[in-house]
Here is the input.
Amino acid sequence: MQDFHPATLFVIAQETLGFLLWLGIGLAVIVLALYAIALMRGLALRGAPMRIAAILGILVGIVAMAAAPAMTDAGFAHLVAGIDYVFIALIGIGGFVASVIALTPLLALLGLGGAREERVSLTAPAE
Here is the structure.
């Protein structure tokens, strides 16, 4: 069970992904910071920002599905089994979900939301 230690799994991920691991971690930190800024400013993360992010997410998912075979050693001619199409669909769904999660706070910060909500305070209100 020592193989499942977090440090071991991190080293395996670092060996497998290389630079992409650090790029992914950096992008995740940026997205979390965008959510924190949007919530502290009291911006609505629903409505127009969510709809625009969903529309863009559909486009990203379609592009990811089209680009996945070309980015690997395989091509569209190598998609023969049903499971190949299932994984292509999962890549598209993953691209959709990731782009909606990442674009919603960005679009809200750009002022496309319009609605404001109660501001989030990191400290207790003074009485």
Notes: The first helix runs from residue 6 to 17. The CA atoms of residues 2 and 8 lie 8 Å apart. The mean pLDDT is 85.
